[in-house]
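Rotation project, supervised by the postdoc (A.L.). Task for the rotation student: set up a whole-complex structure prediction and record inputs and outputs verbatim in this book. Inputs entered:
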Amino acid sequence: MNPEWPDGCSRPVRRDSAGGVELDDNVALYDTAGQLLIMLNSSAAAVWERCDGATTLDEMVGELAEAHGGDDAGAIAEDVRLTVRKLAELGLVVDAGT
Amino acid sequence: MEYEYGWAHRTHNLSGLSYHFAVRADDERLGCLADAVLAGLRDPCDAAPVEHWYSLTASDAALGTVDVTCDDRVLARGQQPGDALGWVVWDVNRAAAEASGCHLLLHAGGVEAGGTGVLIPGASGSGKSTLVAGLVRAGLGYLTDELAALDMASGKLMPYPKPITVKSGSFAVLSDMGPDVCRGPGHGPWVGEEWQLAVGEGTGRRVGGPCEAGFVVVPRYDATAETALTPLSATQAFLALAVNAVNLIPHGSAGTRALGRLAGRCQCFSLTVSDLDAACRLVLGLVEAPAARGGAGREP
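Outputs recorded:
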């Protein structure tokens, strides 16, 4: 994986093999390819839900920062980037292209 | 009555989910005991094919010990009669799980009240069989004490009414349910290290029908704690179900969604148990509440 990925223009998309179910504010995912059951907390779930192949990372950050009352956008951007990267490492999202 | 090869007794045709079998014995008393213990698994029409035969044969007449085989496979040699039946039940559990992969299987007990199921997931030693026995004693319908089967098409819990296996630590609190063979002279070898409590026809213990689960109750035995119910979030209930899923991998995403629906739809609790009667009263209070009678659980 490109060590710089994702950047602000990246459009991550959920893989078809990763089916999710919402529980409270969390999401449980079963990744068929890796045979992994993964529980995302509410923050990670909010990122996961936005990985639709159309929304860029910058747009995700903007939406989430707004939802959190304009908190430190820089910190949110880093959290989102790390979350997307972790989801990609787990094989749950891929890059839809820029 | 004599059967081929000198069998003194063969049981009814029996089915544990998709596993079809029967038991034969060269000792009439042991054969009849097997029939009684496995009454909950009787095929109502005796029509299911017998795909596997368990055989109980005398290994030492002087000692009264028994060998246990399934088809050509030796399960145990030189067992006391009661323990020989325990081996049969153990192997039926294993084989029923293997043969019934079309269902999402959970290491869980289950009972039914008024058409609503109570799912009781838990690891060995959590007290689920004892709780199930107590609830069946209180009149609830028995589904299973070991292997809960969720039908993936209908979402219903399917009965697997094997005998309730009670460990020695619970004999005292369930003493009135002890096997009938406990009461005869020279009963020791016939009881076994674990009780196999029969359910179904002729036992006074009702078997429940297929039903949708309305409750998830996760038991935890703690002799030093107060018996209490504590609500669980859907996430907590889902995790309790998932860690007790036997075959989640082959069911993958569909199985995960099914567990999620279950956790979202049901009222979910953890149950700390130090007093069985008090624990049963708490569960009965749940299932007898008006919302439960109306079939209302938590909205997904």
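Student's summary: The helical segments of chain A are 42-50, 57-67, 73-89.
Supervisor addendum: Residues 17-90 of chain A form a domain with the Arc Repressor Mutant, subunit A fold (CATH 1.10.10.1150).
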